[in-house]
Design brief:
heterodimer; A: mainly alpha; Rna Polymerase Sigma Factor, Chain: A; Arc Repressor Mutant, subunit A; 8 helices; about 75% helix; globular; B: mainly alpha; 7 helices
Chain lengths: ~200, ~120
């Protein structure tokens, strides 16, 4: 192969790889905050949620980066969901083991309440902002109380904006199940929260 | 709950959830950013090395080669690939020079004669 042609092939490969890296970076930047919120709602632990999102990102990058970009979102949320489930199972097992131990140590350092973080802010909050904050807290609390599948269906549809088919792919169930879970979640939240702000 | 109410509730929930993203702290954002960079770097590495699909085939090939090498080494040079029995009779035959001469055919006529004698003896008896 002539040197010039060889260089062209290399250039096109490099530019294709760079383009793919950019697209992946853009995709992950677009989903990372929402994914964190979803993981946090399910795991109710910030560091565990971060770990779950990080693992999902790595797995998507390693195993599916070569797939068409439009497939990434359902794949990513499917991976994240599996990761969340694994963590929940591990946590359940750990909880059972700890419950059987005769002597329990002190409280987990992570669970200690930071008095500085708990101190009320000196900044005065405008009433509207306070109202929004309260509504947000109430919504997050109600979401946390939902059964896992309902919570997942609701967040994927409402926060991430996936359609029913994409949500079904991400949850690994039928579209009918997604509709059922979503409807029940909506009913339950509406029953608890009434009108949101 | 009417569809209109549902829709209004969904919109309000969506708006609130979107706003809650803005409240995610800097530490979390920084860690997410680091995780993203690590993932993008992992995707940029060559796939042939990451992809485990070639590993089973290579493993099977390596195992086959190992077994072949082992069998080949077990068979020392000059050794026949089949079992040769060395019974005491064979050793005596080899040690006995007269017997060797007989085997080489110098007294082949004697053996032919002896064979006919024993056949006749058997028919007569």
């Amino acid at each position: 192969m002539p040197a010039a042609l060889h260089a062209d092939v290399d250039d096109s490969t490099d530019s294709s790889a760079a383009r793919n890296s950019r697209a992946l970076n853009q995709f992950l930047a677009g989903v990372e905050l929402k994914a964190f919120k979803i993981a946090q709602a399910a795991l109710r632990h910030e560091d565990d949620a971060l770990d779950a999102v990080q693992d999902a990102m790595l797995q998507l990058a390693r195993a599916y980066a070569h797939r068409p970009a439009q497939e990434w979102k359902p794949l990513f949320y499917r991976i994240l969901e599996n990761r969340i489930r694994d963590m929940q199972r591990r946590r359940t097992v750990r909880g059972r083991v700890i419950a059987w131990l005769p002597l329990r140590g002190g409280e987990d350092e992570d669970d200690e309440i930071d008095p500085i973080a708990q101190a009320p802010s000196t900044e005065p909050q405008p009433p509207r902002r306070l109202e929004l904050q309260e509504a947000m807290d109430a919504l997050e609390k109600a979401l946390g109380a939902l059964p896992r599948r309902q919570q997942q269906a609701f967040l994927l549809r409402t926060l991430e904006g996936l359609d029913v088919a994409q949500t079904a792919a991400a949850m690994g169930c039928s579209e009918g199940s997604v509709k059922t879970h979503y409807f029940r979640a909506l009913q339950s939240l509406r029953g608890q929260l009434g009108e949101l702000v | 709950m009417s569809p209109v109410d549902e829709s209004r509730f969904e919109r309000a929930a969506s708006r609130l959830l979107e706003q809650s993203l803005l409240h995610i702290d800097a530490r979390t954002r920084s860690r997410l950013n680091q995780a993203r960079q690590a993932a993008v770097a992992a995707a940029a590495r060559p796939r042939w090395w990451r992809a485990p699909s070639w590993m089973p085939a290579t493993g099977a090939l390596a195992a086959t080669l190992l077994v072949a090498l082992f069998l080949w080494h077990r068979q020392t040079p000059g050794e026949l690939p089949f079992e040769v029995s060395h019974t005491p009779e064979d050793v005596e035959l080899l040690a006995d020079s007269d017997a060797l001469e007989l085997m080489e055919g110098e007294d082949g006529q004697f053996y032919e004669w002896a064979a006919t004698q024993s056949d006749n003896g058997a028919s007569e008896g």
